């Protein structure tokens, strides 16, 4: 293995310490950050995530309330619940756990969360703000992946980067965010004629597709950074395993840095959610104070 | 000259005929589209644009009201004016002419225009919707440049495209619109180490930087499409001239298609503004009808 394996947990620990400090400051001012997690129907799929979020929140001094609604809850009822949370000054952020039942369109719910309480960064206005380089609350996975790149001794200005995967919630926002930092970015996807042509010319490669083994060592430039955002469950002779989109073995022989899966982007994503929670609480506090400071007595 | 010169005016004429038909349909239903143009202070710089927009609007059956406010108008006054236009059912679209006086931040005004009346497509929500592939009202220049590419006999899926220039209002949205259409897109800018490395490997090149002569023939792949979005005033021995960002001579020898400046993207942009005006009027009509259809009698 030639590549240095990036330690997502170490990055997470640093971020969590900063979040805990900021949460303590906010709490002292009467604004202890609070997240509400909404899941609908069968909770088994999301349960592991929710429990992990809860643990991370509590260890950082962020309040966390996990709510579960029955599978038959209507869109109108959920919209009403979200509007209630938007209006509740004690709630600073709302997390909508996936998957949702088929009759609930996730985008409609994400749009209903007030942009200032959108700690997942999924509101169209949050995504639009990335384009405008005005990153208030960015999508957690996206911010996490880019934060990891920032820890490496690479100058982002002029860096040639290939992003593989052009989903609305990961690939495209990563590309925008990197462009804002000065990188030259190519976005590849399932219609790209030759991904390797682009990835082999790049100093850093991000992959977020959901296909194990998609990126192999021969697709990389020697010494490049590989940030693997994929999370796939695969069956192996030793039982089920979680792997990313990169063939870790061959990529590790060529890359200069590589994120492991699990233990790379995943933990940093949860830490970013907590960072968004304290950012959201501070923005709401300032918004509230501005509103009152402007009132004539 | 090897390249075929793309005739922006012919594309415009087709678009204008479609807009006129749709405007006539809307008018018959009591919803004749109406645009209001806002300029502030010295009008000389914008006057040519405004007059051109007015002429195009009128020839398509779109009402056009050009308003000019004194240079000393405050941001609060302008915000109030825009809120009044948002609330006025007779106004379907608002255009904010640039340049504005220094004390007026253009983004604040653009955010104040209601997204359904944002015919220039400059609201963060409009830009964010591009990322989500939900192009309601796109930025006019962006939509125009991509419409031009669509008129060529090139399959957009898998097309390798380089966008030179990463501005928030042109380069980035073009990149995301093209990605949504299946192209593999690289965005280059002033920090890119080698623009030619990317542009030479591309089937189509968009340039929107504002530097005459930036793109030369040797930066292109033979037969590629070159869409030139730059508009620059330069002094020549025969007096002032308007040119794009491409060196038209050398690029014309290598490219397969090339847009002239003037006469390329420019006229198509104005036609797109009119198309947005009828789209906005229709969305508002539907929104209005939905609201009333839902009321209990």
TrEMBL record, chains A, B:
UniProt EC number: 1.5.1.5, 3.5.4.9
Highest taxon of the lineage: Bacteria
**Which pathway is recorded for this entry?**
One-carbon metabolism; tetrahydrofolate interconversion
Query: Quick one: which residues bind NADP(+)?
Result: 165-167, 231
What are the record keywords, sorted?
Amino-acid biosynthesis, Histidine biosynthesis, Hydrolase, Methionine biosynthesis, Multifunctional enzyme, NADP, One-carbon metabolism, Oxidoreductase, Purine biosynthesis
The record's function comment reads:
Catalyzes the oxidation of 5,10-methylenetetrahydrofolate to 5,10-methenyltetrahydrofolate and then the hydrolysis of 5,10-methenyltetrahydrofolate to 10-formyltetrahydrofolate.
What is its quaternary makeup?
A: Homodimer.
What the entry lists under HAMAP family is as follows: THF_DHG_CYH (MF_01576)
- Specify the protein name: Bifunctional protein FolD
Q: Which organism is it from?
A: Thalassovita aquimarina
């Amino acid at each position: 293995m030639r590549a240095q394996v990036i330690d997502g947990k170490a990055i997470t620990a640093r971020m969590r310490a900063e979040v805990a400090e900021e949460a303590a400051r906010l709490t002292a001012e009467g604004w202890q950050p609070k997240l509400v997690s909404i899941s609908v129907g069968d909770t088994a799929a999301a349960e592991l995530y929710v429990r992990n979020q809860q643990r991370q929140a509590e260890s950082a001094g962020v309040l966390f309330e996990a709510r579960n609604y029955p599978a038959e809850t209507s869109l109108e009822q959920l919209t009403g619940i979200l509007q209630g949370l938007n209006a509740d000054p004690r709630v600073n952020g709302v997390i909508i756990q996936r998957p949702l039942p088929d009759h609930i369109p996730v985008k409609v719910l994400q749009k209903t969360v007030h942009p200032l309480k959108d700690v997942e960064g999924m509101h169209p206005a949050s995504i639009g703000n990335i384009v405008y380089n005005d990153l208030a609350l960015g999508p957690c996975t996206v911010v996490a992946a880019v934060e990891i790149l920032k820890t490496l001794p690479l100058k982002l200005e002029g860096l040639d980067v290939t992003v593989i995967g052009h989903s609305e919630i990961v690939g495209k926002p990563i590309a925008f965010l990197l462009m804002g930092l000065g990188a030259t970015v190519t976005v590849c996807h399932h219609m790209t004629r030759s991904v390797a042509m682009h990835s082999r010319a790049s100093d850093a490669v991000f992959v977020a597709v959901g296909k194990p083994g998609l990126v192999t060592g021969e697709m990389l430039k020697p010494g490049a950074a590989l940030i693997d955002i994929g999370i796939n469950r695969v069956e192996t002779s030793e039982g089920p395993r979680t792997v990313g989109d990169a063939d870790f073995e061959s990529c590790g022989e060529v890359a200069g840095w590589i994120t492991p899966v699990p233990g790379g982007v995943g933990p940093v994503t949860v830490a970013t959610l907590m960072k968004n929670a304290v950012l959201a609480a501070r923005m709401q506090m300032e918004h509230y104070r501005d509103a009152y400071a402007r009132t004539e007595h």
